[in-house]
Amino acid sequence: MTYQVNDLIRDIDSIIPEVEKELLNRKNGIEGDGSVQQLELIKKELEQIKSYALTNNLPSKEKRFTSFSRYVIDEWSYNSTLGQRLCELADKYKRKLQ
Question: Which of 19, 33, 40, 76 maximizes the CB count within 10 A of its CB?
């Protein structure tokens, strides 16, 4: 089964609430993966990718990159569930999206 634009939009829609929850936790002093700044940038980047998908304006495969995956890989806990989901989404966006 191929990964389509609708799948990407669905995945982004399911991850954004998790990012928002973590963002609220950081703002309330609850520790976890990602700083307020990182989580705000991740949310903004996800929303931008979704906007590209909705307007059929996605970059070509060789130009599809995410900044948020670098934060997750370099700074977050290895066993972060949200981090794993974000990295999987980045991989699908870069390599599997038709």
Answer: 19
Cα angle 48-51-56, degrees, rounded to a multiple of 5? 130
SS3 33: coil
Residue 92 tokens, joined: 């699908």
Token pair, residue 84, equals: 């794993």
Q: Which residue has the tokens 């990407």?
A: 8
Residue holding tokens 């990718």? 49
Cα–Cα distance measured from residue 7 to residue 96, given in angstroms and rounded to the nearest whole number: 11
Structure tokens at 16: 């954004």
pTM, two decimals, is 0.94
pLDDT digits (tens, 9 = 90+) for 9-45: 999 999 999 999 999 999 999 999 999 999 999 999 9
Give me the helices (H) in 1-98, please. 5-27, 36-54, 68-75, 81-91
The SS3 assignment for 29 reads coil
